[in-house]
Amino acid sequence: MSDGPPTMGVEEEFLLVNPRTGHASPGAEQVLARYPHHGPLPDGVRVHRELRLTQIEAASGVCTTAGELRDHLTAARRVLAGAAAAEDCALLATGTPVGPGPATPPPAATGRYADIDAAYGALVADYEACGCHVHVGVADPDTAVAVVNHLGRWLPTLLALSANAPFDHGRDTGYHSWRMVLQSRFPGSGVAPHLRDHAEYRRSVGTLVDCGALVDPDQTFWLARVSGRFPTVEFRVADTALTVDHAVLQALLSRALVRRALDDLAAGREAVPLSPQVAAAAVWAAARHGVTGLLVDPLEETRGPAWSRVEALLDHVRTALDDNGDLAEVQALVAALRADGTGSVQQRAVAGRGTAEAVRWLTARTVPPGHGTRLTG
């Protein structure tokens, strides 16, 4: 790792829906065929389909600054939204569907997606959960495993800040992240176990594959993991972000957590193993309450107000944020989120207007109104 800030990248998953009825629209292949006609994308930005044809994903390139990342995410959202509209679809940044499933059954999955369907059956039959995945550059795999050990305490707080999945096919679940409830049903989900090095990490993943719990080694459900494709630590805890600003906040906090972990490791401070049961309780509390209730500190094994946990996170990474040049940006983004509410809070505020209005509102929040403009909320 260089002396500068670690690199970062973000993968954003979106839902495609009928803009009038809110029914999920299995139009990913058509949108992917059309998107090149709706404007250029920055170098390194990629778009592709997801598990279900009602989902589509945009991935930024490798970025070093918040401004560069914001430009990548903004461009991708605009291009995909334009292509979706041309196919009579709306692009929605929400962790779970606000409306019903497809009006007609989509075609059967093929390839690796068919393998996933065969392995998990009804668990994935209507699985349309969308996440925001953050990659932070860590070149050495043993170091990456040690970094992941340091992250477990803070993952529930990142989830609470990202909460943007209160509904399940039109039903208010009472949770702020129903996506995390759905994800927790998969074997081997949640906070990764405390592992010594990359060799043990590979053995642990291989054992889950051998047990039939995973389709392949690339499919771990841990909320932070060593990427199998890139020299990065990958955060998979956050719901897909309502706005570009929410995604940028997740990326900057994730990068700061990695930098703080690297500083701790350089000083000889290894992570303290967490109780798996308490870590699971902490993730559940974040999914249930978001930032509106009490959250669990999985290290201290205590419960307290959500914003106290957010403040503890900010204190933990303050030096790292400052060193990365991100402190003022994160302070402004957190203040805006605290004033306007997370995506789940904002979604509930408009839910009473009906599905069609909720879709219109989500469409407007998904696509930034002006190039390089910081959004509130």
Which range best describes the helical content: under 10%, 10-25%, 25-40%, 40-55%, 55-70% or over 70%?
Answer: 40-55%
Tell me the number of structural domains: 1
User: How many E-type strands?
Assistant: 11
Average pLDDT rating: 94
CATH topology: Creatine Kinase, Chain A, domain 2
The largest β sheet comes out as: 7 strands, antiparallel
The number of helical runs is 14
Low-confidence sequence ranges: 371-377
* Second CATH tier, the architecture: 2-Layer Sandwich
User: Distance N terminus to C terminus?
Assistant: 34 Å
- Structural class of the secondary structure composition? alpha+beta
What general form does the structure show? globular
Q: State the CATH class.
A: Alpha Beta
What string gives the helices and strands in order? EHEEHEHHEHHEEHHEEHHEEHHHH
Q: Strand percentage, roughly?
A: 5-15%
Alpha-carbon Rg, integer: 19 Å
Function: ATP-dependent carboxylate-amine ligase which exhibits weak glutamate--cysteine ligase activity.
EC number: 6.3.2.2
Family: Belongs to the glutamate--cysteine ligase type 2 family. YbdK subfamily.
Protein name: Putative glutamate--cysteine ligase 2
Primary descriptors:
nucleotide-binding; Putative glutamate--cysteine ligase 2; about 15% strand; disordered C terminus; ligase; alpha+beta; single chain; Creatine Kinase, Chain A, domain 2; about 45% helix; globular; about 375 residues; 7-stranded antiparallel β-sheet
